[in-house]
Write a structure and sequence with these properties.
six-stranded parallel sheet, 14 strands, alpha/beta, Rossmann fold, 39% helix, globular
Length: 372
Amino acid sequence: MEKLSIAMLSIHSNPIGELGSRDTGGMSVYIRELARQLGRRGHRIDIYTRLQNGGYQPVVDLYENVRLIHLGISNNGNLSKLALYSYLSDFFQSLEAFRTNEKIEYDLIHSHYWLSGCLGNWAQDYWDRPHIAMLHTLGVEKNRTGVGLREPKLRIAAEKELVKSCHRILAPTDREKNSLIRYYQVPERKIGVVPCGVNLDLFQPKEKRAARKRLGFDPDDIMLLYVGRLEPLKGLERLLEAMTYLQNNSRLRLVIVGGDGDRAPQTQYLRKMAIELGVDGKVMFAGRIKQKRLPSYYSAADILIISSHYESFGLVGLEALACGRPVVSTPVGAMENLIKKTHAGLVVEKDSAESLANGIQKIITDFSIPSA
């Protein structure tokens, strides 16, 4: 097998950033694990991301044959994703300076998200190398939900140009593939569907009672778990409202993992909402949890809840299933296929809090929860 030298681009999100924070989620896990597996196979991977506050070294050796390279620009503050667009030329100059100094010739460019895709298009033209793009989410799909801030026209236009110019597009599901064809007129032959994987060395079943003892959770509670960023698109308002339909179950608890800390506006908003709904006594905000500790949370839970309005895949669902826990999900990403194949959970039919609550209650009944 030919060994490739691959430039992987993840400008806005650091693959070793804190999971559950504003710009660090399933995509970061995907990039890190993909690079690790490619490195194991003898390919050499350089992942380029932006230098942020966090004390990271300019170059970090992540795994065998895998480096993470932090690109510094004139403004290394906490720029929003949209603000980063104005600095892409600076990023490319920094990338090119590093590449030239290291005397590297890449065989392939693999970009993640539309911002990195724009950078990848410049690299493919300048280096004359093939470019594979994975968008992870589509701006047009996010806007179709009508939830949260609308994605700007700049992003939609950039995505349309990206999918036109790059050599190949990877989508994690047939659903995402069909959206690329429908909204961006991408030829079907240009799209490859490659579902996300999961690290089975890390995510595997553990005994529930032992996991709860380790984390300090009541062994007799029925524990619902949410894992992810605390943003409107994730549907946490709907999940908190669903808890009001389950008030008769005094042992039911919801543990929310993720977010930017207790003082973050979205955390405070959700806490206030839980109080107003009268479910604050049943909801625990656990904050950010390091990935190596997540299997204990999945194993301690009875059900993982995915309440999102939109997901390109839904990696946390796959992680929970790998830990032997059922999933109740809205019809997003790969959840319908995963749950259908594993018979471990339920996809709710209606986009409502009541439907989500009914799905949770059905799984509690069907799986005879709680069980140690």
